[in-house]
Amino acid sequence: MRAFGRCHGVVRLPDQQQPDKLMNYKLKAAPTAISQEQNSQKEPKANRIDIGVDAHLKSYQAARKIDNGTVGVVQSYGSKEALLLYALKQREQAKEVRVVYEAGPLGFRLYRDLEAEGIKCLVCAPRSDQQKRKRRKNNTIDARTLTGELSNYLNGNEQALQLVRVPTEAQEQARIESRQHDALVKERKRIGAIGNSLLLSQGYSSWSNWWRPKAFERLSQAVAGWIVKHLGRWVGILRELDQQIAQAKVELGQQWKGPRPKGMGAPSLAQLNAEVLDWNRYSNRRKIGCLAGMVPSEWSTGEGQRLGAITKVGVPAIRRILTEMVWRMILFQPQYKAIQKWREVLKGSNRGLKKKAVVAIGRQLIVDIWRMQTGRITAQELGLIMIEG
Question: CA-to-CA distance for 346 and 192, rounded, in angstroms?
Fold first, then answer.
């Protein structure tokens, strides 16, 4: 019989004679490629990602919360650039990304960098009520707490965060110039008190502005030589501070242009503008009064209402500027309605009542300045005497 030989090659059948399994395999391969392309074009998985950042000079701790989920694990980053990359990656995973961090010595650079990348950022005032109550505080707790509070705020609880007004770079520069002037004045006061403390400790009376040339000359003849030696070490510093303060005051005065009410100095108005930032931001008199911290505190319950001293929760610099303005306006604007209202108290001898009157006049004064700055009223309608700038 003839023996059949083995076939050592591969024979390809025509397409019509291909097995059914191979035909099915080819049909399934095409939809798989299409599905991968469709997956790549899907929308982000989350609607919103909230990120709370505990910012420090050399480290940043961040925690995130996806939609209505729980707060995730806190991650640490060694630089601001690394944190920005992390925030950009989160934007790829959600339609919206919000970031919050506490205001502090690092300023608003992180806020501006995030906004430049198209990521919405909020800056809030530091709060440590919960940490003090539980007696536990660290970077991880702060980051997780900020994330939860941000989520609550965005979901409608406006009390969850106390937002900070973020100035523009020009507004921030003007405010820094104002506060640097105040810092110089405060430092001069502190060093001057050192000299007066030395005089009082040795049985002498205190001297006003003892470092000024004429005052120091008289002081040198009235006290012991060894005291004059110690005081002389501070004279050069204090006189240099006098010059720097005078120069800073001139620069502040140059920022105010145009006429102004008599008794409202140009440097004071410039400082007030720098602290308020934007008068149009406040929609009513109560809000601008709260900014100055000159609204009464309240302890009320049920039908009983109890009002107390002013809250002092606003900007301290604004209260100081207004208080100085009021004392000057008592002299130069006696016809001002608020001063007329408290005229009898101001003429009296009760110092406590006078202070209350000054606070009340200051509260009305900032409201009237706000009305003038926003065009709601004119200085003539308030009966104010105007002078050229």
Answer: 31
Question: Considering only 103-117, 166-180, 284-298, which range has the smallest mean pLDDT?
Answer: 284-298
**Residue 45's pLDDT is what?**
81
Options 3.30.420.260, 3.20.20.190, 3.40.50.1480, 3.40.50.300; CATH of 46-154:
3.30.420.260
Question: Do 61 and 140 touch, CB atoms closer than 8 A?
Answer: yes
Angstrom distance (rounded) from CA 382 to CA 389: 19
Q: How far is CA 357 from CA 42, 104, 242, 345, 360, in A?
A: 66, 35, 32, 7, 5
Which residues are registered as beta bridge partners of 123?
101
Give the residue among 186, 231, 183, 184 at the shortest CA–CA distance from 207: 231
User: What is the pTM assigned to this prediction?
Assistant: 0.81
Cα 342 to the chain's mean position, in Å?
35
With a cut of 90, say whether residue 389 has pLDDT above it: no
Residue 4 has pLDDT above 50, yes or no: no
For residue 124, the model assigns a pLDDT of 96
DSSP letters of 52-112?
EEEE-SS-EEEEEEETTS-B---EEESSHHHHHHHHHHHHTTEEEEEEEEE-STTTTHHHH
Contacts of 59 (CB under 8 A, 6+ apart): 76, 77, 78, 139
Residue 220 CB: number of other CB atoms within 10 A? Answer: 13
Distance, in Å, from the CA atom of 97 to the CA atom of 195, rounded to the nearest integer, reads 56
E strand intervals along 150-253: none
Angle made by CA atoms 224, 229, 234, in degrees to the nearest 5: 125
Q: What is the pLDDT of residue 1?
A: 45
pLDDT the model gives residue 44 = 59
- Sketch the domain layout of the chain as residue ranges: 46-154, 169-253, 260-300+308-387
What pLDDT, on the 0 to 100 scale, is given for residue 347?
A: 92
Residue 377 has which token pair? 């009223």
Please check whether residue 139 is in contact with residue 61, taking contact to mean a CB–CB distance below 8 angstroms: yes
Diameter over CA atoms, the chain: 146
